[in-house]
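Protocol step 4 of 5: obtain the predicted structure for the target chain.
Materials: sequence only (see below). No template structures provided, no constraints applied. The aim of this step is simply to have a reference model before the mutagenesis design in step 5. Sequence pasted as it appears in the construct record:
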Amino acid sequence: MFFHPMDILIFIAFGISLWAQFKVRGNFQKWSGVEASSGYTGAETARRILDQNGLYDVPVEVVPGTLTDHYDPITRTVRLSEPVYYGRSIAAVSVAAHEVGHAVQHKEAYGALVLRHRMFPIVNFTSGIAPFLLLAGFLLKQFSLLGLGILFFSFAVAFQLITLPVEFNASARAKNFILAEGLIRNDEERGVNKVLGAAAWTYVAAALISVFELINFILLFLQGNNEEN
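Step 4 output (structure tokens):
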């Protein structure tokens, strides 16, 4: 047998990841060509929603590139890529509102976001060491190292899983914000769903890959221990 069943699942998850990235770029490009009825830019959208939520001190900055949009929880800054910051499209309004959703989560101490922030220093450390422990464990047949590598890798998996409700919640907030503020019409909601829905799939695929890899490592660890005994 050339492939372990888990390898096939990981391969499928990678396929979903590539498909999701393709859909993100495709939907962003498509809906970047459709101007929102409100005429708001992404920057104006972000500023309006931030102010409506009392976040007057959260700045909105432009960053180079495409799809480089993010919320920085350390400096409490919404950063938008140039096509989103200056664009007046449905895609620009959608992405800007999504990033503001994270800022509002931060203000309200949304549970999953708080947990992700607290986990980040641990994950940053363990994810850097886990590959070396796993590799050393396999090559040297040291199952104690392999087990420690699996433990460290599990923190990264947990981080990926916690990211899912954070992202889905931010997208749900984004749709509610822009509909409530009249930044899009009801008939434009389809474009918002396409842009944000494709982005959500990238996080789902990343989580699937991590979970399948973890299960694969655990199975190899158990198999090795059984053979040693």
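Step 4 remarks: The chain has a mean pLDDT of 90. The first strand starts at residue 60 and ends at 63.
Proceed to step 5.
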